[in-house]
Amino acid sequence: MEALGTNYILNQFDPNSDDIAVVIKEFTLKKKADIFFDKYSEPYITSIAISEKDAQSGSLSFNSLPFPNVRKGDTLSFDGVGHLIYGPSNPGSFLAYSILFLESDKDVREFGATLESIVQSKAVKLGAKALMAAAPTYGTAAMLLQEITQFVAVQLKKNKDDELYRRNGTLLQDMIPPYDILRTFKGENDYISAKTSVIPLSESNLLGSRVRQIGV
């Protein structure tokens, strides 16, 4: 029955009009970066995504979510569809995204607005809007994501925050299945293991913070 349901979704999905979401289903804090921390750590996720439609409109998709009081070895999972990295929206011909897992030296709940400001300032400095308008392609999006995420990591390092793990993805419309829908990708390093999924989705489950569009 599950295979029949999957086949039905794949056959019914229209990549030209239907929405997708990229979500983190769960992650595990395998090891803390700062051995001098007490028994709790404060990891957080920051994500940036650029789709063809974002490039055409001169915007980025941004989200950030903190996790206070996490112990080494804890697995944090999300009910419903998961924590949104992108969407729900139709990306167009491509979607590129970067996810940073970081460990804060301070109260992570203070950083949402700061992170958004850092991302937006770097995008403006790079001339992201003009670059994307001139060439709304995967290559442009990937270059901008690399520059912006590296800048974010460097700036937060100055705040004594440690980068734990970086994960990148590229989804294309002209694939079988389009955008790799219904697939889950797993990755890990010494500090973090994580699962990222791509799902067809019409509505968010409203869990955690919503993806925000940042004009650049």
The helix tally amounts to 5
Specify the biggest β-sheet: 5 strands, antiparallel
Helical residues, percent: 25-40%
What's the total count of β strands? 12
- What is the string of helix and strand elements? HEEEHEEEEEHHHEEEE
Mean pLDDT: 86
- Structural category: alpha+beta
Radius of gyration: 17 Å
Strand content: 35-45%
Question: N-to-C terminal Cα separation, in Å?
Answer: 46 Å
Gross morphology: globular
Spans of at least 5 consecutive residues with low confidence: none
How would you sum up this structure in a few lines?
With 216 residues, this protein is α+β, with helices and mostly antiparallel strands. The chain is built from five helices and twelve strands.
Word description of this protein:
- The protein is α+β, with helices and mostly antiparallel strands and 216 residues long.
- It has five helices and twelve strands.
- The chain has helices spanning 2-12, 52-57, 112-126, 128-134, 138-158, and strands at residues 20-29, 40-41, 43-51, 59-66, 70-71, 75-77, 83-89, 94-103, 162-172, 183-188, 192-200, 212-215.
- The strands form three sheets. Strands 1, 6, 7, 10 and 11 form a five-stranded antiparallel sheet that branches.
- The longest helix has 21 residues, at 138-158.
- The termini are far apart.
- The relative contact order is 0.26.
- The model has no long low-confidence stretch (mean pLDDT 86).
